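In this section we turn from sequence analysis to structure. A common task in structural bioinformatics is to predict how a protein folds when a small molecule is present, because the ligand can shape the pocket around it. The inputs are simple: the amino acid sequence and a SMILES string for the ligand, here zinc ion. Study the lines below before reading on.
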Amino acid sequence: MPSRWFLSLLALAWMLLAAPRTGAFQWTLVNFDNRDYVPLAEVASFYGLRLGAEAGGPASAPVTLTSPGRLLRGNVGSKEFYINDLKFILSFPLLAAGDGFYLSRNDLTKLIEPVLRPEKLRNLGAIRTIILDPGHGGHDRGARSASGDEADIALDVALRVRELLQRRSTGWRIILTRSDNRFIPLEERVQMALPHRDNGLFISIHFNAGSGIGTGIETYLMAPQLVPSYNGDGAPTLAELQRWPSNARDPENMALATAMHAALLSRLPPLHDRGIKRARFHVLRENPLPSVLIEGGFLSNAQEAALVASPAYREAMAGAIVLAIENFRNATRPALQPLAPDAMDRALRAGNAAEPKVSVPNAAN
Ligand SMILES: [Zn+2]
């Protein structure tokens, strides 16, 4: 709980950004430390979920929101949040105050809403162009390992994605920011995406390196304005105050990251799930297309590097990226599935139904 909080109950007829509803839902905005929060009880009622949480419990009390087929769970004071077992990192921790539990308004509009109702995204044309961005290249080798360099592995995965997409449909326009081993500055990679802002998705492919014990996969999307980067030290930065081109795509970015991470978890061998995170990487920050950056495993971990080096792993990763693209396109195309219960929910369950995930011991955060 914040040390100094003050409660100002403003009964506002506040429309969710992507929710043209008939009859406005009455949200109660509560201000803690100059940030807007909404009661979880109202989140539950808006989405038809049942809130399970015990007032007056421990500082890290568990909180659940459930319905048949859906389980959202987190802990008071924590940013870790799960939707049908898919791990998200909230922009701000869940709070408890008095008898109530609270979620930041930012997390409601930029995480919960696009994940639970991707069909409400209004900002999206028909998806036709896929821009694949294998990281690094040329003199920039990225992370290195005995099993290979990040630059080469990322390119191999991108080429496999292109091949799979072409095989599945001739309708895609597929653009690679590089299709051989050359160095392309980050600015140029974004430049290549700009002409396709109305119908494209941008997918950057990377592999991780860390100080020995890092393991697992993670999916990054651009951090919304005033939201700290996952890797930040907590101190507000100038970049955080600024609104960047990609911030016009906050909800779409989250829906794409969700589809991507669920697909990676469902198709790859069980690896540590590092979650869906936010950062201001150049290719995300400057990008007016819905965009994500995938870290597909740790090359600094010898075991994981050997796994990533295998053609089977790279093919599975390429297949996951294709699945994510198709799930995103289907989930955000409301006119084509008026009766579908919720395509993203199905995608999430598909991810959830994968082989049981094994937490690798010694996992870094
Ligand atoms: Zn990289």
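The mean pLDDT is 84. As an exercise, try to locate the residues that line the zinc ion site and compare them with your own expectations.
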